[in-house]
Specification:
- The complex is a heterodimer of chains A (655) and B (532).
- Chain A is of the alpha+beta class and 655 residues long.
- Chain A is built from 18 helices and 39 strands.
- Chain A folds into five domains: 100 residues, Rossmann fold, CATH 3.40.50.20; 71 residues, 2-Layer Sandwich (Dna Ligase, domain 1); 243 residues, 2-Layer Sandwich (D-amino Acid Aminotransferase, Chain A, domain 1); 112 residues, Glycoprotein, Type 4 Pilin (2-Layer Sandwich), CATH 3.30.700; 69 residues, OB fold (Dihydrolipoamide Acetyltransferase, E2P).
- In chain A, a hairpin with a 2-residue loop joins strand 11 and strand 12.
- Chain A is globular.
- With 532 residues, chain B is α/β, with parallel strands linked by helices.
- Chain B contains 19 helices and 17 strands.
- In chain B, helix 4 runs parallel beside helix 5, helix 12 packs parallel to helix 14 and helix 16 packs antiparallel against helix 17.
- Chain B is globular.
- Classes of the chains: A alpha+beta (655), B alpha/beta (532).
- Chains A and B meet through loops of A and helix 1, helix 3, strand 2, helix 10 and helix 19 of B.
Chain lengths: 655, 532
């Protein structure tokens, strides 16, 4: 069959990616959009778009019924589910088939088979794919039996209570002679804590790497692998940086991994793009984790090193074509690394961030950018906070790393806090450069350290000076601007950058050179060229071009020194905007899901007043002190921005 | 319009000497000005700040718009007198909420901001500038009132402050009082006379008599707050229109008052785009000399202050000791009258008269650039009618209705001072370069005249003439006149609006032109232009 019209049942960067590919193949496209997404690029890129009223995924991108109805109405031949949402929903795949529409992905059976993790593991073990061996033992298990189990599983072994969790009764056993003691004490502890002495033994992988293999199958019985990807840089089990090839995989290991992945695929007659995920020990032993029956977020690194377009391959296979020769005999060339740029506050615990994205410009030599947002979009709280994927490709890993960190360093991302600094610090970390990475990398090095702002104190103060000077010089100045015939009084502007307050004092001299000072450290600024959005200037004899955007009182300055976002402080405290005493503000953008108090309610310190939901996480707003609710500014369903006043609690003065 | 070419040789001996001596004078000027800027001295300023107060200049800086200019007047007021340089008051033109206005700030660190005769002169001049140019006035009030020992020179004329404030209001020129501290006795009328008053909580004291005086007068026990605090005046008398929680708040409110004035300038804005002069303004340091006997080419000055160095000279070949012509400065059209050779002859006087009438016919402000030793004397000139011609020029200057701005670049002697729109002829602004000298005549000439007169008197009375005493006398007179003609001396008496760095001339004149356009710019009508 021929796909003439494709509906992309997704949003953001993957929707853009699929739509562009389809367009290149002469396929017309249909996009979907929720209320919040109406201005995103994927909507514009498509030939047609279907509005799904509402915002939550359940109301919109998960509504298989609405999506299929639209597909039928618009005469769509096939649906590409992207990743997430309906991509691993076997029911949706079946509904597509029933409606006579091609689901671009594996069979519903394959999805089902891999969806049940326990069953999948058994199936893979049967197919000869290495899995983490495990066994459940009870108090009647003998010492000898235990030793046999131990030998079968292999050391080190993780001993843990079969019920419960939270690490109680967990032990790591590295040698056979320690096993018995460990199991007995775990049993005692488990019995005490959970009333059941059942204990589970499983092979423990120390310092694990996350290695996955891209596989592809067609309807003609071919299943191939397209080499591995390493995705060890993770935070809370979410991949952040991925690359191919892995520094820990040599040619021999690669063929082992590939063979195992192909075996996994064959065991379920896999069709389309899939990924077999493994956990890998430092000695190269690897064990099956799961099969993702879809295109992965990190597929571009495989595309770079193989020269294949995986989305195009998916579409060809969906049309019933066999895998082409270049996919059957893939060649691994060069090195590719992907970094995921998320709208999140790393240091605050990867708190998702939302709001207007005034500008997003990421570019650099040897860099590909797959973005779901563009300058001027608003990032909402309803979906994954992935703004863009930045992928570098170079002959060597060192070059790819340099290209990527350079592109990220020089990226101009204004308005929304991102993990850019974490990405750059990770890419420039010695361990990463050496290729010594495992899934504990971020935790071990500390996200607070890695996520710390890249801009140095010097960068911040120079950028504050530049923003001050540029604001004055970039527009027609009034007659005699800043002129004083008596005394030497200069002007001052106060900026806030992160948690710092920077006071810039400045005065333009008759020669045009500007004397500027922060904290009494004086320097001379000579403006070379000024435009509305940039200034080229010499500071301390160093010439740079600084690019500047203003949004309200915010100034975003980007230069070779780094990127800074600053807020101009008002000259006068405005009495009208001063916070009402006792008012509680929203710590993050989100929607109000519950209001537990009313005006006049007496509360004690710690009482939950309002609950907010942001990115599927619930945040409680609690009373900071005993008092009475005097104002309630929100109701259930309201969208609130960071800093919105939610509730005002008047403190009760104790007599 | 022709572009003025420059023949200045910055390596010439004259230029180098002029520049060095001008820089030396500017350094002396800065040293004197720093006394005014320093207020009552470090100890008093520190004590003032320790009370959480800003200095007069800090208040002004916060009041002004960002990147706004401030042209301060007569920083050397009271120079050469027993009073503190600056006369315990800061006045000038600045921009607040996009409105050019006159700012008058007491300096409370100098003898409590009390008023002496020079304070009064400076204050009244600032109010006059506001009235004639139609500029709103903002008073930053904190003054202990009159400097009582000088009341004889003060009390009677000081009534003019109240009179000027009410006149301004009647003319529709807004007046604002921001009261930061003492504003007592006579000072209490300042917020009382202004259209708008803002008082700072716990700081402003606005009453006719303080607790001690009340006690003496009536025996009543009272306190500052109940007699004249901000809260009392806000809640009880209504003298305060706005209650400010602190100094910052007071200035913020002052800015908001200005922003709400719905103010419009009456004169036209700049008619051309301002192009910087082609010649370097820095070179003005080396063009005019300190030795006023050495002539300099005024065209070199004009070429460094007018837009694009373009000057359309009128009657270039007639009366060549005086330059007249048209130009723009920061886009404002201006007619320039500049001495070229120092002396004014009949032709020059007639040329100036015609030119002034032309400027009035076309509503163009006039800029007088003075370097003038006076009207020519001698039989031929007297018989040629120099008095009548000089009178024509003075008549024209006096009755001209377009704004005049005068800059004294060098000599300002004799009736030349008058004809070239000296202080008595009401220029809207008058600034002097530090090398300038102003007197009825040069020191040597004056001493010489005195000597000749004395000799004639001795001869007519048949007395012997004491030659030795004459030498001493001449010397003493020369020194006295030299001292009294010095720019600092004249500026100290508020005979000008301040001494400016020659390099700032273009900016200061530009700001002055902008200020005069706050009012209607219209010339004298009635007769046509007389061809003299």
């Amino acid at each position: 069959m021929v796909i003439r019209k494709l509906l992309v049942a997704n949003r953001g960067e993957i929707a853009v990616r699929v739509i562009r590919c389809a367009r290149d193949l002469g396929i017309s496209t249909v996009a979907l959009y929720s209320d919040a997404d109406r201005k995103l690029p994927h909507v514009r890129e498509a030939d047609e778009a279907i509005h799904l009223a509402g915002n939550t995924p359940a109301e919109t991108y998960l509504r298989g019924d609405l999506i299929l109805a639209a597909a039928v109405r618009l005469g769509v031949d096939a649906v590409h589910p992207g990743y997430g949402f309906l991509s691993e929903n076997a029911g949706f795949a079946r509904d597509c088939a029933a409606a006579g529409i091609v689901f671009v992905g594996p069979t519903p059976e394959a999805i089902d088979a891999m969806g049940n993790k326990v069953e999948a593991k058994l199936r893979m073990a049967a197919a000869g794919v290495p899995v983490l061996a495990g066994v459940t033992v009870n108090t009647s298990t003998t010492a000898a039996e235990l030793q046999t189990h131990g030998d079968d599983i292999g050391y080190p072994i993780l001993v843990k209570a079969a019920f419960g969790g939270g690490g109680r009764g967990m032990r790591i056993v590295r040698a056979p002679e320690e096993l018995l003691d460990a199991v007995e004490s775990a049993q005692r502890e488990a019995a005490a804590a959970f009333g059941d002495g059942l204990v589970f033994l499983e092979r423990f992988v120390e310092s694990p790497r996350h290695i996955e293999v891209q596989i592809f199958g067609d309807t003609h019985g071919n299943v191939v692998h397209l080499f591995e990807r390493e995705c060890s840089i993770q935070r809370r089990h979410q991949k952040v940086i991925e690359e191919s090839p892995s520094t820990a995989v040599d040619a021999a290991l690669r063929s082992h991994l590939g063979a195992a992945a192909v075996a996994a695929g064959r065991s379920i007659d896999y069709v389309g793009a899939g990924t077999v995920e493994f956990v890998m020990a430092p000695n190269g032993e690897f064990f099956f984790l799961e099969v993702n029956t879809r295109l992965q977020v990190e597929h571009p690194v495989t595309e770079c090193v193989t020269g294949l377009d995986l989305v195009a391959l998916q579409l060809r296979i969906a049309q019933g074509e066999p895998l082409p020769r270049e996919a059957l005999e893939p060649v691994l060339r060069g090195h590719a690394i992907e970094a995921r740029v998320y709208a999140e506050d790393v240091v605050a615990g990867f708190l998702p961030m939302a709001g207007p994205l005034h500008r997003m410009e990421i570019a650099g030599a040897g860099v590909r950018v797959d973005a779901g947002y563009e300058s001027g979009n608003v990032v909402s709280t309803f979906y994954d906070a992935l703004l863009a994927k930045v992928i570098s490709f170079a002959p060597t890993r060192m070059q790819a790393t340099a290209q990527l960190s350079n592109a990220l360093r020089s990226a101009r991302i204004h308005g929304v806090t991102t993990n850019r600094d974490l990405l750059v610090r990770t890419l420039e970390h010695d361990d990463f450069v050496q290729g010594v990475t495992d899934t504990g990398f971020l935790e071990r090095n500390g996200v607070v350290t890695l996520g710390a702002g890249l801009a140095s104190a010097r960068t911040i103060s120079q950028h504050a000076i530049i923003a001050t000077v540029h604001a004055a010089l970039s527009k027609p100045r009034r007659l005699g601007a800043g002129f004083r015939n008596v005394g030497d009084a200069g002007q001052a502007r106060t900026w806030r950058c992160a948690d710092q307050t920077i006071v810039v004092e400045w005065k333009q001299q008759r020669s045009g050179v500007i004397r500027a000072a922060v904290d009494n450290a004086e320097l001379l600024v000579e403006s070379v060229e000024v435009s509305e959005s940039a200034i080229t200037a010499t500071i301390l004899g160093e010439r740079r071009t600084y690019r500047i955007d203003y949004v309200g009182r915010n100034a975003f300055v980007d230069s070779a020194l780094g990127a800074t976002a600053m807020v101009l402080q008002p000259r006068f405290a405005d009495a009208a905007v001063a916070a009402t005493v006792g008012s509680l503000r929203s710590p993050l953008p989100g929607s109000v899901i519950a209001v537990h108090v009313g005006v006049g309610t007496t509360v004690v310190s710690g009482t939950v007043l309002v609950a907010l939901e942001a990115m599927k996480m619930e945040h409680s707003i609690r009373a900071p002190h005993d008092g009475v609710v005097s104002e309630l500014r929100v109701e259930v369903g309201d969208q609130v921005e960071t800093g919105s006043v939610l509730v005002v609690v008047d403190e009760v003065v104790q007599e | 319009m022709a572009v003025l070419q420059s023949l200045v040789d910055i390596r010439s001996e004259q230029f180098v000497i002029n520049r060095a001596s001008m820089l030396d004078l500017l350094a002396q000027h800065d040293a004197e000005v720093s006394k005014a800027v320093g207020g009552g001295g470090d100890a008093y300023v520190a004590r003032h700040r320790a009370r959480g107060k800003m200095t007069a200049r800090e208040r002004i800086e916060l009041l002004l718009d960002e990147d706004a200019p401030f042209v301060e007047f007569s920083a050397l007021a009271a120079w050469g007198t027993p009073f503190h340089v600056g006369a315990s008051i800061v006045t000038g033109i600045g921009v607040v909420a996009d409105i050019e206005c006159v700012i008058i700030a007491h300096d409370p660190t100098v003898r409590g901001g009390t008023m002496n005769p020079f304070t009064l002169k400076k204050n009244l001049r600032a109010l006059e500038i506001a009235r004639v140019n139609r500029l709103p006035v903002i008073n930053l009030v904190e003054s202990g009132g009159a400097d009582l020992p000088t009341q004889a020179d003060l009390f009677v004329p000081a009534g003019n402050i109240f009179r000027e404030l009410t006149l301004l209001s009647a003319l529709g020129i807004p007046t604002v009082a921001l009261v930061f501290g003492n504003s007592t006795a006579g000072g209490a009328y300042v917020p009382g006379m202004c259209d708008h008053a803002v008082l700072v909580d716990k700081r402003a004291k606005v009453f006719l008599g303080g607790p001690p005086l009340v006690k003496m007068a009536t025996g009543e026990e009272s306190d500052d707050e109940s007699l004249g605090g901000a809260e009392m005046h806000s809640r009880v008398t209504g003298l305060a229109d706005y209650f400010a929680s602190d100094e910052d708040d007071c200035i913020r409110i002052g800015r908001e008052i200005m922003g709400a004035l719905n103010w419009r300038k009456l004169g036209p804005g700049p008619s051309r785009t301002a192009t910087e002069p082609r010649h370097d303004g820095e070179e003005l340091l080396g063009i005019a000399g300190v030795d006023l006997r050495v002539p300099f080419d005024t065209r070199e000055v004009i070429g460094r202050i007018v837009d694009d160095s373009r000057f359309d000279e009128y009657k270039e070949l007639y009366g060549r000791s005086l330059l007249t012509g048209w130009a723009t400065i920061h886009g404002f059209s201006v007619g320039i009258i500049a001495n070229a050779q120092g002396v004014l002859f009949s032709e020059e006087a007639k040329k100036a008269t015609e030119f002034i009438m032309l400027a009035n016919q076309t509503d163009v402000p006039l800029l007088f650039l003075q370097h003038c030793t006076g009207y020519m004397v001698g039989k031929d000139y007297e018989q040629g009618g120099i008095i009548k011609d000089g009178a024509k020029m003075i008549n024209a200057v006096t009755n001209s209705q377009v704004p005049h701005i005068t800059v004294i670049m060098g000599a300002s002697y004799g009736a030349g001072n008058y004809g070239m729109c000296g202080r008595s002829f009401g220029p809207r602004f008058l600034f002097a370069w530090p090398n300038s000298k102003m007197a009825v005549m040069g020191p040597q000439q004056l001493a010489g005249v005195m000597s000749i007169v004395a000799r004639q008197s001795a001869e007519s009375q048949g007395k012997p003439f004491d030659e030795a005493a004459d030498v001493v006398q001449r010397q003493a007179i020369e020194e006295q006149i030299e001292r009294e003609s010095h720019a600092f001396f004249n500026s100290g008496r508020v005979y000008d609006d301040g001494i400016i760095d020659p390099r700032d001339t273009r900016t200061v004149v530009g700001l002055a032109l902008s200020a005069v356009h706050s009012n209607t710019v219209a010339g004298q009508r009635g007769y046509g232009v007389f061809r003299m």
